[in-house]
Amino acid sequence: MFTGIDDIDWPSLRHAYGSARDVPELLRGLASEDPAERETALDGMYGAVHHQGSVYDSTLACVPFLLALAAREGGRDRGGIVELLVSIGGEADGPDGGDASDDHSGTGGSGAVRASRTRRRSAVEADLRTRARDAVRAGAPVFTRLAGDTDVCVRRAVPRALVGFLDEPARVLEQLQDWLHREHDDRVLIALTEGLGLFALRHPTYSGPALDILTVQSRPPHGPALRLAALGQLAARAPERLPADLVDTVVGLLKERSTGRRPVEPCHPVTDTLARHFRRLRPSDEEGSRLLRTLHSALDDRVPDRIALLNGQLSSPGTSDRCNAVWMSTGLFRGWRGDYEESVALIGAQLSAEEGGLRDAAVSALGDLHELAAPAADALYGLAIARPDLWVRRWERGAPTLGGPLRALARTGDPRTTALLAEVLEGAAVPDDLPLTVSHLGGHAAPLAPALLRALTAVDPGSPTAPSRTLPLLTALTELGDDAVVPQALRLLRGRPYEAPDTLMARAAIRTLGAFATAAREATPVLRGLLDGDLGTAAAGALWSLEGDASAVLPVLRRDLAGRDPYRRTAAAEQLARLGPAARAALPRLRRLARSDSVWERTAAAYALWRITGAPEPALPVLRSAWAESPYPRVRVAEHLHEMGAAGTPLHDLLAAELSARRRHLAREGGHGSDDIPKDERLLRLCRETVGGVGADPA
Q: Do 31 and 151 have their domain in common?
């Protein structure tokens, strides 16, 4: 099984963390009699040799040994090895294979040099992936033999391998058909059904018989799990074959499956390895989760159908079905616009569940919805009142943070949160994220200002944690309009050299001073003293708010506008826009900046050109190109068009098109930020207000 393993120069090969000298130990660990050692070895293979889907020269060297391990009669956990081989061969590649995160070339060198390196690296990676696929394909006879293995977990992993790596489509289809007739385990039957769907995708010419089988499997007398699997594959490959009452059918099958489902033996050992820890975070009914995710993914932009399906899942009598629904709701909410009021209320109903995993899942899902979670506000408030122990989350390392229920309730803007946060503020330590959470409550949070000010007063400017502590406190007090914060902002500015990381704290203090023009007059000398340094742009903006003297701030802003720092150029353009006509001397440089490669610089420059000249014509083409180039500046562009009013009418077609789009503007593969939904909702509000109701919310 390991013949020749010591003849390979493993130290000269590479994996994600450098030399592959440890790989022989991992391979031998996969054959161990100890379940924990086997799982640790598999964990190591995914963590280093096949890190985030990447393929290295050491990965290629492992393939023959992995095939031998998979073919070993009586070997344990071989299903996981087959899954690893399928992934190495290319059936489970990530979007980028994790390569971008492995680039340690630094920031030196020109863009052309970096681009050349990227092309060379991409060519090497493409070659490795091709060779990996060929190596796994060469082992296809192993997968054919494993189709009759006595280990159900091995058989469950094989259909995807057969479809992916056996070269003769007619033979593959025949094997899958024969296998279906003799197989009795539901888990393997589901895997075969998924294999047929993959076969139809890979071999369109031969897809007819595969789709016929799937159509038969989607109907009685087949069991609910198999029918759900077949419907998911048909939805992705042949939606015309789906029943007209798809959602009702699926919800009924889900309930039938939940009622009759029996516990099954896991295909992975129950150990305390890192891999096992991550498996504990998976849904308790992983099969059900996969079946419904397949359906949701296949339905794609049929948002009303997906909402109806989600609501049916959330109303299921089975706890695991509801838990699966809560977790998969996040992808729907973040990716698509729709009427989620009923879905959110149903998620709120899960907060009273006795099963802690379901409750925690619901809290997590609601926390990212912000004001869209309002239909669940009563349920969140009820949980917070009943469980004060959940108000604050304490960590082994680092400062405490707000507990999930209280944070989610605050993000809805519910005024009842204020009294609860006041109690939290009476504690010994202010949770790190509490000040930023306050911003969601608007004026309702005014009673919290004295406690927040006390917390700010207690911060030592020389502390290593001062920047991270002061920024949210200054932001919260500024948004609450409490001018008692001015002396504290001055305290943070006086008498310190503002080098990183203190620059972050200083910028926040300067913004605070600029927000209180009347109360902060005493700050004028301090701000003038900062004009010549790295904080010049920020100080100039605050001085403009305090004095309105263009002669004092314009030279500083023009200097930074012409500088080499793109952040300072963008910030200078934004401040020049505030000066309006008084900044006419900066127009030549702003016109050049409006042609920058940076979408953020162009957007800031275009807005400044309009504010200074009052003429929309130079700004509008730039704003249109920024909108089209990237979804990220769209909120900023929409803010500018909202302010421009009738002058921005030539770009209202962009806003109307955005209102008619189902997809959220920041929706993307590979995850989302926690503020993607509120950003998108703000974009929609700006579009509606600016075009006066043109377009309609997608259903």
A: yes
Query: In terms of DSSP bridges, do strands 401-402 and 392-393 run parallel, antiparallel, or are they unpaired?
Result: antiparallel
Terminal C-alpha separation, the chain: 58
Q: Could you report the per-residue pLDDT of 255-303, keeping only the tens digit for each?
A: 899 887 665 555 655 454 544 444 444 445 788 888 999 999 999 999 9
Residue ranges of alpha helices (H) inside 139-185 are: 140-146, 152-165, 169-182
Q: Is there a contact between 159 and 176 (Cβ–Cβ < 8 Å)?
A: yes
Residues 255 and 182 in one domain: yes
Q: CA quadruple 139, 145, 146, 151: dihedral positive or negative?
A: negative
Q: Is the same domain home to 172 and 162? A: no
CA 188 to chain centre: 32
Structure tokens at 450: 């004295």
- Distance CA(420)–CA(297), nearest Å, equals 40
| Cα dihedral across residues 419, 420, 423, 425: positive or negative | negative
- Do the Cβ atoms of 470 and 504 come closer than 8 Å? no
Q: Are residues 183 and 258 in the same domain?
A: yes
What tokens does 433 get?
């994220």
Task: Tell me the pLDDT tens digit for each residue of 409-430.
Answer: 999 999 999 999 999 998 877 8
Residues 153 and 45 in one domain: yes
Instruction: Please indicate, yes or no, if residue 202 is contained in any of the structural domains.
Output: yes
In contact, 528 and 542? CB cutoff 8 Å: no
In 3-state terms, what secondary structure has residue 259? Answer: helix
3-state secondary structure of 573: helix
Do residues 154 and 232 share a domain? Answer: no
Same domain, 136 and 208: no
Distance CA 312, CA 322 (A): 9
How far apart (Å, rounded) are the C-alpha atoms in residues 389 and 405?
A: 11
CB atoms near residue 663 (< 10 Å): 16
Assigned domain for 15 exists: yes
Give the chain's mean pLDDT: 88
* Helix (H/G/I), strand (E/B), else coil: 146: helix
> ω before 698 within 30° of 0 (cis)?
no
Question: How many domains in the chain?
Answer: 2
Q: What CATH number is attached to the domain comprising 56?
A: 1.25.10
Q: Residue 390 in contact with residue 402, Cβ under 8 Å?
A: no
Cis peptide before 501 (omega within 30 of 0): yes
pTM of the model: 0.82
- At residue 401, the 3 state secondary structure works out as strand
| Domain span at 220 | 168-262
Instruction: For residues 204 and 242, state if they share a domain.
Output: yes
Amino acid at 136: V
